[in-house]
Structure formats: C-alpha cells, structure tokens
Amino acid sequence: MTARVGVITFPGTLDDIDAARAVRLSGAEAVSLWHADADLKGVDAVVVPGGFSYGDYLRAGAIAKFAPVMGEVVREAREGLPVLGICNGFQVLCEAGLLPGALTRNAGLHFVCRDIWLEVASTSSAWSTRFEQGADVLVPLKSGEGRYVADEKTLDELEGEGRVVFRYRDNPNGSMRDIAGVSSADGRVVGLMPHPEHATEALTGPSDDGLGLFYSALDAVLASA
What we know:
With about 220 residues, this protein is of the alpha/beta class. It has helices at about 15-25, 70-75, 90-95, 150-160, 210-225, and strands spanning about 5-10, 30-35, 45-50, 85, 100-105, 110-120, 135-145, 145-150, 165-170, 180-185, 190. It starts with a strand and ends with a helix.
C-alpha cells in the first residue's frame, strides 16, 4: 500500500512544494489539494503547509479556516485523519479549533529566520512516533507570528496529557513554556511552528531530521489500514 498525503494550497501558500517533496521522500504519494475545493480526494493524511494564507490580512490563518477544503479537513480530522500544520498551517489549525491556543507576534516583534534545535517532548502523536523521547532535532524556523500562547489551564492540560510534542531548546520567539508544537487530544492532529519539510536531506541541510514526522504519519496510516 502506498499512502496518499494531501498538501493544501491557499492563496499565499509558500511551502506546499517543499511539503509535497518531503511527502515523496518519505515514500508516500503527494496529492495536491486546492483551497476552494471541498474535496480531500480520499487521502490518508493531510499537510497544511506554511506561507501567508490570504496574505495574513486579517490575522494569520483566520481567513483560511473558512476555505471549503478546511471544512473537510476539520470533519475528517475529528474522525481520526492525521493532519499536520506547519507554521501558517499551525495557525490555521488553531483558528479552525483543531488545536488549542494561538500564535501571536514574536517577542521583540522581529521576524525570526534561522536553524533551531527542538526537543521531542512526546512520541505518542501520529507525527512523532519515529523519534526517541527527548531527542534533539534540527530544523529551520521562519516566522513573525510564532509565539505560542494559551491560558494556564490549557497549558497545564497540554503538559499533563502529554500533548506538547516539540519544545524549543533555545526559545527564539517567547513561546509559553518553550512550546514549539502541540497535538490534539487523540494525537492525530499536530501543529508546529518550525519547518520539518525544509530538513529532509543532509546535503541541503540543516539535517534530515524533519523526515521523522512524515515517516511517523506513514506508520500511523499503515497501522490503521
């Protein structure tokens, strides 16, 4: 069985091609999904990639949540479809209610663009099983609104339920509790601000650590087939 992973394109999406390439490098088939089509084409998982959906004119991810394709993503995600939101995709998933919290302007109000180390805080999500608990992964970060925030009750729940998936080793944007990525209650939906799709080959760097997320999702798909 060859898993089929959908990659959404919104107006302003920048990293859909990179995400599709990461999907292919992991051994799956990349399927293009258009924002205006309420059709997931029977895919086994979905990636909501980075960029500036709808120009971030209202609030990052706030308009994209109303796209026809996102209605299907929300419906299928609540039935167990693995979904990964990267950078702007993380913002979209939070706006759509699939993940708690919000992404706000970076501390210091500067755009951050550099390679960063993450700690794998949970290996129980559909997108992190291939990693070892506490492992270090090196991936790029490039965002101006990457500071993860939530109320203390939500943060405590995320911590207590093992839903913090990735943490910053050196918090570059002021995210609460160093959180770089979180999961839904069932672990099938994950959002993170850094870009694993830009860390897929040692030759182009900064590592191939990002492939672990895509391999993990394929394992989840095959396990449920």
